[in-house]
Amino acid sequence: MAGPIVTLTTDFGTASPYVAAMKGVLLSVNPAAHLVDLTHDIPPQDLHHAAYFLAAALPYFPETALHVVVVDPGVGTERAVLFVEIGGCRLLVPDNGCWTHLPERGRPPVVIRLENKHFWRKDVSDTFHGRDIFAPVAGRLSLGVEPHLLGSFVTDWVRLARSEPTGTATSIRGHVVFVDHFGNLITDISRDRMKEVPPHGRVLLGAAQVTRWVRTYGEAAAGELVALFSSEGRVEVAVAGGNAARRLGVGVGTEVVVGWDE
After folding, report:
1. 171: number of CA atoms within 13 Å, CB side?
2. Which among 92, 113, 88, 90 is positioned nearest to 103, based on CA atoms?
3. Are 189 and 178 in contact (CB under 8 A)?
């Protein structure tokens, strides 16, 4: 029978010994833990990328899974380490807002600041809390330690700013919030915001104007610049069989305008 699921998300890189060290500590506490690598290729210290990744991935895991997230530019400072329950997800995270884009699903988050050093390694490095705090605590939680024993409940934590689109009578203005492995440009404009747009409208992104909307990539000719709705229901700009980010020379933060005539 498989052990408790513990997932790992870091910006350490896939060839890093740091990930291996975390796994070693965690498995030393609970050899039966079932470790799942989500990614170790979050761009270094990129909290917004981490936030998008977590919100897109974690809701599909069983609620019993524990998600360990070490994207931590503030390691060694006074920033806290948190245990969080939000929308059916359980996480160990730095208090830097990387988890705050996860959907609450009608329940306010439960957040505990880790303070009980009994669950940490004896010697804690100033620069590697992933190994010395996150991993041993994750091991203990996977063995059934109750979260309230880790420290104090808190009601204040760092919240990461979220990009929000704005609208006028003839447009919706947003931004690219994620560029995937294929170079597809995913925006913060949701399908719900598009319901009143006359058959989709035109998409302005940098110097490019996109007027062709498709349902799937396969509907477009190779090399065609198109707009569609992503699997998460967001406006996306793509090049069929190509890389939209490279072709247009744009990325995260680029303004996107969906416009139409009255």
Report:
1. 10
2. 88
3. no
Residue 98 has pLDDT above 90, yes or no: yes
Closest listed residue to residue 49, CA positions, set 96, 7, 16, 88: 96
Comparing 40 with 2, the larger pLDDT belongs to 40
Q: What's the pLDDT at 200?
A: 67
**Three-state secondary structure call for residue 2:** coil
Angle between helices 135-142 and 17-29 (to 10 degrees): 30
* DSSP, res 44: T
CA-wise closest residue to 140 among 122, 123, 119, 113:
119
Contact, 94 vs 68, CB < 8 A? no
Token duo for residue 221 = 């000719």
If one counts every other C-beta atom within 10 angstroms of the C-beta of residue 204, the result is: 16
Q: Decide if 88 contacts 131 (C-beta within 8 A).
A: no
Query: What tokens were used for 12?
Result: 């350490």
CB 67 within 8 A of CB 91: yes
Q: Are 10 and 43 in contact (CB under 8 A)?
A: no
Residue of 134, 72, 64, 59 whose CA lies nearest to 102: 59
What pLDDT score does 192 carry?
86
The predicted model gives 109-135 an average pLDDT of 97
Residues 18-31: tens digit of each pLDDT:
999 999 999 999 99
